[in-house]
Amino acid sequence: QDVFNMVVEVPRWTNAKMEIATKDPLNPIKQDVKKGKLRFVANVFPHKGYIWNYGAIPQTWEDPGHKDENTGCCGDNDPIDVCEIGSKVCSRGEVIKVKVLGTLALIDEGETDWKIIAINVDDPEADNYNNIDDVRRMKPGYLEATVDWFRRYKVPDGKPENQFAFNGEFKDKDFAVNVIKSTHEHWKALLAKKTDGGEINCTNLTVSGSPFCCSQECAKATVDAAPPCKAANPIPPE
User: Fold this and answer.
1) CA 54 – CA 187 distance, rounded (Å)
2) Alpha carbon of 80 to those of 36, 48, 105: distances in Å?
């Protein structure tokens, strides 16, 4: 079916750089902090914030110790990223089922950072999308905008433009599914302690054979110990 679960980290059109905090127990979604400041992605003309619902496929890991045979670069130490192109603006933390359509290979500061292109299976148009060429046909300009966004989104922060493997060309669904499967194998090795994950916190409730598996009581205590949610700080004017 080529359908996977996706955890939504950043709803479309928003700017806060939210991500799964892999070093924290139970991996909550938190806002990235750089130099003591909450991180926001700038609006790079003509885009407003993130131009898709952005998130990750759980149970995947781009191993920083593994050199990707396609890109020649090692993984970025995170779950594999997903750009969901459906019409609905999702909520942060929502888990949705997505149909994989293709992938883009971003090289981010020398690391392989796959971007899976997918559509929510509940989208009214989902049946019309079965591969990357359908995106080109049904949403002209969207894939080009995606490359443009990833190329330039760090430039306002004073960084150079990002590079891509394959000259920025998208690979098809089958290629994308194989990438997901390989990152799932890396995740399994991580959870079985066959690979050293460094600072990654692998505490989990569901992988019974994993040395990191914990009880429901232990997980509840972790969640209960988290500080209460307060009102968000105002977004900085810049």
Assistant:
1) 20
2) 26, 23, 11
Per-residue pLDDT averaged across 180-198, rounded? 96
Confidence category of residue 2, pLDDT binned at 50, 70, 90: confident
φ, ψ dihedrals at 210, nearest 5°: -85, 135
CA 104 – CA 71 distance, rounded (Å): 11
Asked if the structure places residue 228 within a domain, the reply is no
| Containing structural domain, residue 28 | 3-201
SS3 6: strand
Token pair 């079965």 in the structure block, residue = 130
Tell me if 159 is assigned to some domain: yes
Q: How many domains does the chain have?
A: 1
pTM of the model: 0.95
Cα-Cα-Cα-Cα dihedral sign, residues 69, 72, 78, 80: negative
DSSP helix, strand, coil percent of the chain (3-state; round to 5): 25, 25, 50
